[in-house]
Amino acid sequence: MKTKITRFKGRALLFISAFVFLSGFVSACTPQGYSGPVQSISVAWSPFEHGTLLWIADDQNIFSQNGLNVTLRKYDTGAGSLDGMLKGEADITLGISELPMVRKAFEKSNARIIGEISRVEQIYLVSRKDRGIQKVSDLKGKRIGTTIGTIAEFYLGRFLAINGLTMQEVNVVDLKTPEQWENSVAEGIVDAEATAQPYADLAARKLGSNAIVWPAQGGQYVFGLVVSSEDWITQHPELVNRFLKSLAQAEEYLDRHPAEAKALMQKRLNVDASFVDSAWSRDQFSLSLERSLVTAMEDEARWMIKNNLTTAKEVPNFNNFIYEEPLKAVKPDSVNIIR
Questions:
Q1: Predicted TM-score of the model (pTM)
Q2: Does residue 8 surpass a pLDDT of 60?
Q3: 339: pLDDT confidence band, cut at 50, 70 and 90?
Q4: Beta bridge partners of 43
Q5: pLDDT confidence of 18, banded at 50, 70, 90?
Q6: What does the pLDDT average to over 279-293?
Q7: Maximum distance among all alpha carbons in the chain?
Q8: Which of 28, 36, 287, 288 makes a 20 to 30 Å CA pair with 12?
Q9: DSSP element (H, E) containing 72
Q10: Category of 225 on φ-ψ map: left (φ > 0), alpha (ψ -120 to 50) or beta
């Protein structure tokens, strides 16, 4: 009897030891989430593919896993979301293109770039054939819609210049709302328009065979940026780090689950699968800070000076408007800004 009890105790001890070992192994292999207090932040965004990592982090509860209660505030344009953030309507703005930041640099704003989340090809020129437009030179004297103050305006000017025209040789019409981006050229209010996806596709579809479409970027990417104010960044360093960490984890999710990420883009932009497939083939979604961003901003600043869109005469030092330390702490290999 004693032998049986001894054997039972031995087996029980072996089972307990194995359980403890396996529990420790599983614990060591399971990523540990944030365990501190949950803190609230507000994030401004606009409905373009730049927002893909933001949507993933929100949809997959990645923000909450990092102790963030995130409120999303939607704006029609990235420029509008930047202005809203600077007015105190949000703590961070995400997905704005670089041109609004060029403007803020000329104004000596305290807005600071803390990351890039995308590089996209999104600006297209959609024209009406029945207005006598068959080639780019036919745009001379035509009414061309775009959104003044955004990257679409810059690429319209650049596209015209490459093709031997100037902004002064066309009649620029300011289109400010999603409804105008989708409908103005289709309804004949303008002869052509330079606008971002998905609105360029929507406008072209409404025109059908009457549409002629040109890509306006000429191989240059539009950058999607993460921006906050210098004051908020310095006062909330831990929140900035946790927010960037969430975006880095969203990037990892996108790499592992592309089908789910594509479905989320389709849902958030309310577009069809063919648009998402096209965007996936031409766009890049990753968290970084690279020297090419500064080069693009310098080019855009020179364009603004040349076209008298600023009273400044010199290109700003854009390194002064980039705060790379938080991203270095979260994803150091992704930062190659040269000081």
A1: 0.86
A2: no
A3: low
A4: 72, 92
A5: very low
A6: 95
A7: 106
A8: 28
A9: strand 68-74
A10: beta
Three-state SS for 75? Answer: coil
In the chain, count H helices and then E strands: 14, 10
The pLDDT of residue 33 is above 80: no
The amino acid at residue 156 is: L
Pair of tokens at residue 132 = 């006598």
Per-residue pLDDT of 243-259, as tens digits, reads 999 999 999 999 999 99
| C-alpha closest to that of 33 among 58, 56, 62 | 62
Rounded Cα–Cα distance for residues 205 and 216 (Å): 18
From residue 170, alpha-carbon distances to 121, 131, 192, 214, 224 in Å are 24, 14, 10, 17, 28
Cis peptide before 198 (omega within 30 of 0): yes
- Domains of the chain and CATH, by start: 39-120+221-334 (3.40.190.10), 123-215 (3.40.190.10)
- pLDDT at res. 29: 33
Residue pair 294/318 in contact by the 8 Å Cβ criterion: yes
| Six-digit token string for 100 | 């609004």
